[in-house]
Amino acid sequence: MSDNEYIPKSKVGKWFNDRLPLLTLANHLTDYPTPKNLNYWWTFGGILTFCLITQIITGLTLAMHYIAHADMAFESVEHIMRDVNYGWLIRYIHANGASMFFLAVYIHIFRSLFYGSYKSPREIIWIIGIIIYLLMMAAAFMGYVLPWGQMSFWGATVITNLFSAIPLVGEGIVTWLWGGYSVDNPTLTRFFTLHYLIPFLILGLVVLHIWALHVPGNNNPVGIDIKKPSKDTVPFHPYIVIKDGFALLMFMIVFAFFVFYSPNILGHADNYIEANPMVTPAHIVPEWYLLPFYAILRSVPDKLLGVIAMLSAILILAVLPWLDTSKIRSAVFRPLYKQFYWILVADVLILGYMGAMPAEGLYLLIARVATAYYFLHFLVVLPLLGFKEKTLPVPLSITEPVLGGMANLATAKQNESIDKIK
Amino acid sequence: MSEKKTNRRDFLFTATYAVGAVGVGAAVWPMIDQMNPDASVKALASTEVDISSVKPGNTITVLWRGKPVFIRRRTQEEITEARLVKMEDLIHPEKDEDRAKNPEWLVMLGVCTHLGCVPLNDKGDYDGWFCPCHGSHYDTSGRIRKGPAPWNMEVPKYEFVNANTIKIG
Fold it and tell me: Which residues does residue B109 pair with via DSSP β-bridges, in sequence order?
């Protein structure tokens, strides 16, 4: 990369850049060499940035009208919906924005899983990503509590009670989290504070995520290391900017569909009933994006072990770079891994469906099998596959197979030697 | 470099870190403890309930410390059923005699010990309560019999002020 050689054209620019090299940074981001074979699955990083900014802006404007008090929160949300100018629009964007954020992050994560983007040298990018994902779940959960409806209240009760599973100190921790002996006003005000804080923590981590990405550069569908810059790369601007922009527009159509045509389809009707500590709704179901983990929690008959299983299901992702022993990144060249990958996708979808169903009979049985398979995939299949799998030949560069149809290392090398002789 | 000199400096460093750690701890603790129940929350420690209008076989629910408390006037059959259960059949063995001092009145927190939902009256496989959240079944003494909850529903501290009034807390 030629960052250090960059000199601004104007005199003022040079004067400023010598004191604070912002223009050097801008130049790095513009010229950043990007693999030229990135497909549309690579556009979700940009889409996620858009989601975060949207949540922060709509959240700030909602906070100007929302009142974080157990007696007034529910009413103030109705006030936003009915009285505040465009309040309905801002709230529906914020509420559906959370779902869109998770939709995009799941595609982003499964993209990484398919193309092996978490592998060396990109482990830190991946781990920062998992931390962002955990913070997103915390922010989404606490945000869902703020309208102080029935689902808000009982969701908060069930989730905070997970901590009571910890031996000895569990009850004390739950009381501390609540600031009382049940979910009540002190709980609401602290959740509001943390819900406001977390997006800015995420923003900081996103900067680190991108910084860590710009050290080795992007992975790509072929999953090979490439020289940067070279004939295998294109500058970020305008090539990737245009591609990301187009994908973002497509994504915004889906987003707008939910906001304008079915703004409540992803929510629960029970949350339009004000919180009542005396009555629990008949079916407590978390938001769709938490369902697979909820299914894992319920499929273990023991309270403490259920909580441990649920947390492990997320934390196991953090050590994934070391569980996957294969040297080949992309599933394109891993015929067996490709099949297991799609089984995992199906497994997570099944878990999500079971999380929405009552935990009994056949549903419970299927959820248990799916839970067992989830852990089997990461703890047994992935470590073994690296040793057992016969991978396909990997091309030497991105350009070679495109131009000459020489898809593998052997022919590419042969071609190189012919070039040398010429 | 003599070894003695290094040791003196090491001692100073260690002492400084130790004092620093105590200082940080002292500064952080108020920030953590402010989240615990405050004086106004603790002040709402007891509630008096008039039970004169409760008929046998009925349950009233009152709010105590933000949590529902079930006060059930049990029928004779329910009491007999609760008292005949063998201890070895229980997940969390407690005698009904210990849970309901006055057998006619069962007073307990209406909070499922699994994840805190409010169980439903007169439901479930054991004629007591059933939690709709994750399917825990409680018997006529509020003891867990089936499902993911680990303990019986908690009996709070309470006393009969007179024949018609219970003081919880």
Answer: B69
